């Protein structure tokens, strides 16, 4: 089953790996607790992390070692597949596969004529997979293109209501399980900030949350205090960042006080990052459908954070918004667990977007 997941291109299938492993180890943990078996809980937890790590490595290796071969009808958005390096594409000049074996055929269903439509029908009857270029590009890039969106697409992006109802419970379970270690880390961080120099330990700022409602967000202060600092993008090499601040930003410890916001119900563990009101007003004018990202609660970490890191200008912000839209469209507990895994991997290995 695991190898079959790698046959369909894109990152969404990787999100299936973590929940499968988690379900197995949760079941084992319940058996240990119910029957009071003499098994070390720490050993069980550690073995689960190791299994998850190696499954992820194997998944990535299989995807990159075996390039998927796709036949592309070079019309409309299907032409964009040429810019993606980890798949092998071949342009079809005529409605004929020429006896070459492909893993699938890709077409922009809105751009092809009747001849190509009949060709796709023959492919399906022969058992050859047919992919919609729009959906495939989203899966491969982890983004929903803003420039290609229309008002008719908004409804299809709405997350499941059942998912939204259970999301707060999911957040509270994770918060309760991790709160002891988080409190210890917060205490050490607060001490380091205090020893480095004067200024507040916590930094609070108004951000825009779900439904465009403002709330107060909390972070550990990572920059030198200055009355002259205006609202601006904070770059990773910003001269205002302190020595302690550089470390806690790299490890994302500066975000931990937002557990307060999660407990209050203002934020979630996973979701689009909340922005300052002035930025929201500016981006709403410049980026199509920008405010739609406020359909979900903002998160401490999210798909955009693990895929594209910090945004320091308008172009990078637009890319992050496209990642946010992908998350909103595909929001699920499987994807949430995968994002948590990628966040932890980035923090401890330094590999991945920050």
UniProtKB/TrEMBL annotation:
Entry keywords, A to Z: Membrane, Transferase, Transmembrane, Transmembrane helix
Residue ranges of every copy of the Bacterial sugar transferase domain listed in the record: 167-348
GO MF term (any one): phosphotransferase activity, for other substituted phosphate groups
Designated name of the protein: Glycosyl transferase
Domain of life: Bacteria
Record keyword Lyase present: no
TM ranges: 12-36, 42-62, 168-191
Coiled-coil boundaries: none
InterPro entries cross-referenced by the UniProt entry: Bact_transf (IPR003362)
Provenance organism: Advenella kashmirensis W13003
Pfam families for the chain: Bac_transf
Family under the similarity heading: Belongs to the bacterial sugar transferase family.
């Amino acid at each position: 089953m695991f190898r079959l997941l790698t046959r369909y291109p894109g990152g969404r299938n990787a999100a299936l790996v973590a929940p499968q492993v988690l379900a197995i180890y949760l079941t084992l943990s319940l058996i240990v607790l119910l029957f009071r078996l003499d098994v070390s809980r720490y050993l069980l937890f550690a073995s689960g992390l190791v299994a998850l790590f190696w499954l992820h490595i194997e998944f990535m290796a299989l995807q990159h070692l075996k390039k998927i071969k796709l036949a592309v009808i070079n019309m409309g958005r299907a032409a964009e597949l040429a810019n993606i390096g980890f798949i092998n594409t071949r342009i079809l000049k005529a409605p004929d596969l020429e006896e070459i074996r492909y893993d699938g055929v890709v077409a922009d269903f809105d751009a092809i004529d009747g001849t190509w439509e009949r060709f796709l029908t023959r492919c399906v009857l022969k058992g050859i997979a047919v992919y919609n270029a729009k959906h495939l590009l989203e899966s491969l890039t982890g983004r929903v293109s803003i420039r290609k969106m229309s008002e008719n697409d908004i409804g299809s992006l709405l997350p499941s209501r059942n998912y939204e109802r259970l999301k707060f419970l999911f957040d509270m379970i994770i918060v309760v399980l991790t709160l002891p270690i988080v409190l210890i880390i917060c205490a050490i961080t607060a001490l380091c900030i205090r020893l480095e120099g004067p200024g507040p330990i916590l930094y609070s700022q108004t951000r825009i949350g779900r439904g465009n409602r403002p709330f107060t967000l909390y972070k550990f202060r990572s920059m030198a205090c200055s009355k002259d600092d205006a609202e601006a993008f904070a770059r990773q090499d910003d001269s205002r960042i302190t020595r302690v601040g550089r470390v806690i930003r790299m490890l994302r410890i500066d975000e931990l006080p937002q557990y307060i916001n999660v407990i209050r119900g203002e934020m979630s563990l996973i979701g689009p990052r909340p922005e300052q009101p002035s930025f929201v007003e500016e981006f709403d004018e410049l980026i199509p459908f920008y405010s739609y990202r406020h359909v979900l609660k903002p998160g401490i970490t999210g798909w955009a954070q693990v895929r594209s890191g910090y945004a320091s200008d308008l172009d990078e912000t637009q890319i992050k918004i496209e990642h946010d839209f992908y998350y909103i469209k595909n929001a699920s507990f499987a994807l949430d667990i995968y994002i948590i895994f990628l966040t932890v991997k980035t923090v401890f290995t330094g590999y991945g977007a920050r």
